[in-house]
Design a protein that fits this description.
This protein has 293 residues and is α/β, with parallel strands linked by helices. It has one domain: Alpha/Beta hydrolase fold, catalytic domain (Rossmann fold, 3-Layer(aba) Sandwich), CATH 3.40.50. Helix content is 47%, strand content 19%. It has ten helices and eight strands. It has an eight-stranded mixed beta sheet with strand order 1-2-4-3-5-6-7-8, with helices on both faces. Strand 7, helix 9 and strand 8 form a beta-alpha-beta unit. Helix 7 runs parallel beside helix 8 and helix 8 packs parallel to helix 9. The relative contact order is 0.12. The N terminus is likely disordered.
């Protein structure tokens, strides 16, 4: 009886261990994740050295069952920021809480990973080279903003406007860091392209403060700027004895002093936020400013 009991114990042990081994070696079939109400396509640009831009479009949940037109937010650095922008604006708590209107989100990216993004964004989002700053010398390919802007205006806009129902009176752009510099550049170079601007942490110091000069030049010829602008930065972006923050405040003060007709400007310094972390705070508050129901 003892021998039989031992055999039984060994059999039960082998049964459980063999099942465990089988469970460990059986691979679960993994399905690719698809974002609901999201589409993606590629545009090859003739303005930016045959660059293949990956365009991602997030649509409101009721888009397919309606015939109305929607506001749209264009997002630079789409590889890094489209997911966050889409989540906040379309499926996040802000939309569920009716903090913002239903909008369409369009991300502009490269689809080649973060290393490529960091290199190509410097080319596309900076209006000029900067040979003065140490930071500028890291980006010898900088200065392609005009070509990238042509891509947006003449290649991207026509495709989006043709394939989606866009409210042309409510078109906005969101950019952070170099993307913020790019958005601010458009504001004073071709402001008619967008109604709303979410400008996050722009390096105003870039190329000997050329953004301050551009705003002054614009004011010398224009007294009206019928736009909504959300301008922000993190309090921990205190590099160079707070020069980064001080220059953004100088830009904001100059704009306010010029008292542009029709302009709504909101400027905010987010306490406790760093250069990377402030993106979500800037976007959240910018969305509520631009797309309030």
């Amino acid at each position: 009886m003892k021998k039989l009991g031992l055999v039984t114990v060994v059999f039960v042990f082998l049964l459980f261990t063999s099942n465990g081994i089988q469970a460990q070696t059986t691979q679960t079939k993994l399905n690719p994740v698809c974002l609901a109400n999201t589409e993606q396509f590629t545009i090859t640009s003739k303005y930016v050295a045959s660059e293949n831009y990956i365009i991602q479009v997030g649509l409101p949940s009721g888009y397919s069952s309606s015939q109305k037109s929607y506001p749209v937010l264009y997002v630079t650095d789409g590889d890094a920021l489209f997911g966050m922008a889409r989540g906040m604006a379309i499926e996040g708590w802000m939309r569920l809480g009716n903090d913002i209107k239903d909008i369409i989100v369009v991300g502009i990216g490269y689809g080649q990973g973060m290393d490529v993004l960091l290199k190509k964004r410097a080319r596309d989002l900076s209006p000029s080279k900067d040979t003065i700053l140490a930071m500028g010398k890291q980006y010898p390919n900088a200065g392609g903003a005009d070509n990238f802007l042509k891509f947006i205006q003449y290649e991207l806009f026509p495709v989006v406007n043709k394939n989606y129902r866009i409210n042309q009176d409510s078109v906005a752009i969101f950019g952070h860091s170099f993307g913020g510099l790019f958005a601010a550049y458009i504001l004073f170079k071709q402001p008619e392209l967008f109604k709303g601007y979410i400008i996050s942490s722009p390096p105003v110091i870039w190329n000997n403060k050329s953004l301050l000069k551009l705003e002054a030049e614009y004011f010398s010829n224009h007294k009206e700027l019928n736009k909504i602008v959300y301008l922000s930065i993190g309090s921990l972006e205190n590099w160079d004895n707070n020069n980064f923050i001080n220059l953004l405040n100088e830009l904001s003060q100059n704009i306010q002093a010029h008292n542009y007709k029709g302009l709504k400007l909101v400027t905010r310094i987010f306490e406790g936020e760093t250069h990377p972390s402030v993106t979500s705070a800037a976007l959240s508050n910018g969305l509520r400013t631009l797309f309030k129901p």
